[in-house]
Design goal:
Layout (H helix, E strand, L loop, with lengths): L2 H23 L3 E4 L3 H11 L6 E3 L3 H5 L2 H8 L3 E3 L7 H12 L3 E4 L3 E3 L4 E5 L3 H7 L4 E7 L3 E2 L2 H20 L5 H4 L14 E5 L7 E7 L6
Parallel strand pairs: 1-10, 2-3, 2-4, 4-7, 5-8, 7-10
Antiparallel strand pairs: 5-6, 6-9
Helix pairs in contact: 5-6
């Protein structure tokens, strides 16, 4: 690893550890993994082989190969990124994620003072993060750590939402412009904003921070 790569990794590690400490102060469980491989192994160790795992729309989880690892181990996995699925089938899968033993997801942003910031089009992901599953595991790359709430919202609007709109081939303006225009489009993917200021009552939430860039 070059000097500049080591410096970036150390910078990310320091931000992850500071954020983890703030999350713990807010009632969350939080750990900083050494790298993406360590994060994936730690998450697999947190989930029992017989537990049902709900995986909503999250690129980070898929980049870590966790869905495949869980399926190969025999865990029932509920995910709605199903090719050629009918809308009714997708809705049913989203509802099943709400009652899974474990929800495994990413986050759009996490602040240095320990808040999770997420914006959804449908709201199924953020709903499940707050209430439903017995446990929630949130994994995030250091690229999503921001200074404060406003920067978190800005990050979603500037980066995560336009990329996701392009991936989903929506008719949202940002899918064509590459930047947010605060649209009123029917297919906007920024319809629901949820800020988790503290751990929700009744739901165990563990945040796994990775000192690398992951997801959008």
């Amino acid at each position: 690893m070059s000097d500049y790569q080591q410096a970036r990794r150390e910078f990310y590690r320091l931000r992850c550890e500071a954020t983890a400490a703030a999350l713990v102060d807010k009632g969350f469980e939080a750990i900083t993994a050494a790298d993406r491989e360590d994060a994936a192994q730690r998450i697999m160790d947190m989930i029992d082989p017989d537990e049902t795992v709900g995986i909503p729309g999250t690129v980070t989880v898929r980049e870590l190969g966790l869905m495949q690892s869980l399926q190969e181990r025999g865990n029932p996995v509920v995910q709605h990124w199903v090719t050629d699925a009918e809308p009714a089938e997708i809705r049913e899968l989203r509802l099943k994620q709400l009652t899974s033993d474990v929800l495994l997801t990413g986050t759009n942003a996490v602040t240095l003072d320990g808040r999770l910031v997420n914006i959804d089009g449908t709201g199924n992901r953020v709903a499940a993060m707050v209430f439903g599953p017995d446990r929630v595991i949130v994994v995030t790359g250091a690229n999503k750590i921001v200074d404060d709430l406003q920067e978190g919202v800005d990050r979603v609007k500037r980066i995560a939402a336009p990329i996701n709109a392009i991936r989903l081939d929506t008719r949202s303006p940002c899918a064509r412009t590459g930047y947010c225009v605060d649209c009123e489009a029917g297919e906007t993917i920024c319809g629901v904003t949820v800020v988790m200021d503290r751990k929700p009552g009744g739901t165990d939430v563990t945040v796994v921070l990775v000192p690398e860039e992951l997801g959008y």
